[in-house]
Amino acid sequence: MEHEKIQGKTESEIKKGSFQLGVSVHDPSVVEVDGTYYIFGSHMEAAQCTDLRNWKSFASGVGKSNPLFSNLFDENLYRKIIARIWVHGGNMAEVEFINGSRVTAGYKD
Q1: pLDDT of 28-81, one tens digit each?
Q2: Rounded-to-10 torsion of CA 108, 64, 26, 52
């Protein structure tokens, strides 16, 4: 059985590449500093590389071992930055920071 040709080549004549996933980052933001690329994701994942292909993870998830967030579980930190928290009906909360800014967010019970 003869297969359809693609640009004059049969399926067996076409080189097939592979895709190797090095890291998984949700909602990525990429920055470059002195020839090194850093990728940061919304789920606290981070990786770095120099070629935009071969990423190596250096931070992962919510936990005390994540070097990007070493003080994530420090209760005193929150006392220093949060002035008040209001919980509104309808699963809404409002946070006022000591600098006067406010954030309103939904949450699940």
Answers
A1: 889 999 999 998 887 778 899 999 888 998 888 777 777 777 666 676 766 666
A2: 170
Q: Do 37 and 52 touch, CB atoms closer than 8 A?
A: yes
Task: State the pairing for strand pair 46-49/36-40.
Answer: antiparallel
CB-based contact 39:48 (threshold 8 Å) = yes
Both tokens of residue 72? 């994530």
- Residue pointed to by tokens 């049969």: 10
Residue 95 exposed, middle or buried by CB count within 10 Å (0-12, 13-18, 19+): middle
Q: What is the pTM of this model?
A: 0.50
